[in-house]
Amino acid sequence: MKNIVYILAFCFLLQTDLLIAQETSIAKDSIDSKYREDQFYFGITYNLLKNMPSNMTQNGFSSGFSLGFIRDMPLNDQRNVAIGLGLGYSTNSINQNLLITQNNQNIYNYSLVENGSFSKNKITIHVLEIPLEFRWRTSTPDDYSFWRIYGGIKFGYIIAAKAKYNGPPSDVKVSILDAVEKLQYGFTLSVGYDKINAHLYYGLNSLLNNKQELNNQVLEFSIIKIGLVLYIL
Questions:
Q1: Which structural domain, as residue segments, surrounds residue 174?
Q2: Where do runs of H (alpha helix) occur along 49-201?
Q3: What is the DSSP letter of 59?
Q4: CATH number of the domain encompassing residue 153
Q5: DSSP conformation class of 169
Q6: Is residue 20's pLDDT more than 60?
Q7: What is the pLDDT of residues 27-79, one digit of tens each?
Q8: For the purposes of burial, counting CB atoms within 10 Å of the CB of 21, is it exposed (0-12), middle (13-18) or buried (19 or more)?
Q9: 194-206 residue pLDDT tens
């Protein structure tokens, strides 16, 4: 999975260099009245959980990383209102005190461990994403610094998920792909000026499927992501 991240990051950086060179050439020769904006994105987020059961808490820093391509489709002659549809990838970690194990019958068991009694306990997921955005901005064909407000919905499909615990009585590392709700979706909002923008993702469904229970209570926590997103041509 790390290889996927390295390959995507390399392609991202290579494409960025090519686009910057192309942008410079266009600026010298002519202004494109049919321009499009913000075709690539790169984001870093802090991940929060909502709807956690009683006594479940987060600890440490839970981070997220995302990148992808969005096709910008202007809706008006000024080209400052558009629809964006894309494809991307994200990896997210969630540090918390919910210990997940699996028995010989491949049934997942859940228990809460006391904070401070372990060195690491986290869930990590890898997601293919389809962002759909309604885009408003103050851009013009020859202005590359502008205000933007992009709101929409993002669909995700979890392709890998694991839980890792380091602590007594023994370390645990288990795939939880069969325990997660593979199809994820939530609202998104990006607001800012120029390249770097504040970003919010508000998950609308549970991370785990409805078969996963703690003390006969269905685990229904979902993800909120708060961070920064970088948009480039």
A1: 2-232
A2: none
A3: -
A4: 2.40.160
A5: S
A6: no
A7: 434 455 677 877 899 999 999 999 999 999 999 899 999 999 999 999 998 89
A8: exposed
A9: 888 999 999 999 9
Q: Which of 187, 221, 206 is nearest to 49 (CA)?
A: 221
Instruction: Please name which of 172, 179, 49, 176 lies closest in space to residue 113, comparing C-alpha atoms.
Output: 172
CA separation for the pair 137, 148 (Å, rounded): 4
Asked whether 12 and 42 are in contact (CB, 8 A), the reply is yes
Which residue spans within 20-107 are E strands per DSSP?
40-50, 63-74, 81-95, 98-102
Q: How many other β-carbons are positioned within 10 Å of the β-carbon of residue 67?
A: 20
Q: Is the pTM of this model over 0.85?
A: no
Residue with tokens 């685990």: 219
The total number of structural domains in the chain stands at: 1
Asked if the model's pLDDT at residue 221 lies above 60, the reply is: yes
Segment (H or E) for 190: strand 183-193
Sign of the Cα pseudo-torsion (5, 155, 164, 115, in order): positive
Closest CA to 187 of 223, 230, 140, 144: 223
Query: What is residue 229's predicted lDDT score, i.e. its pLDDT?
Result: 96
Distance in angstroms (rounded) separating the CA atoms of residues 154 and 186: 6
Strand 183-193 and strand 196-203: the pairing is antiparallel
- In angstroms, rounded to a whole number, what is the distance separating the alpha carbons of residues 132 and 82? 11
pLDDT in tens, 122-179: 999 999 999 999 999 998 887 778 899 999 999 999 999 999 999 998 899 999 999 9
33, two tokens = 């009245």
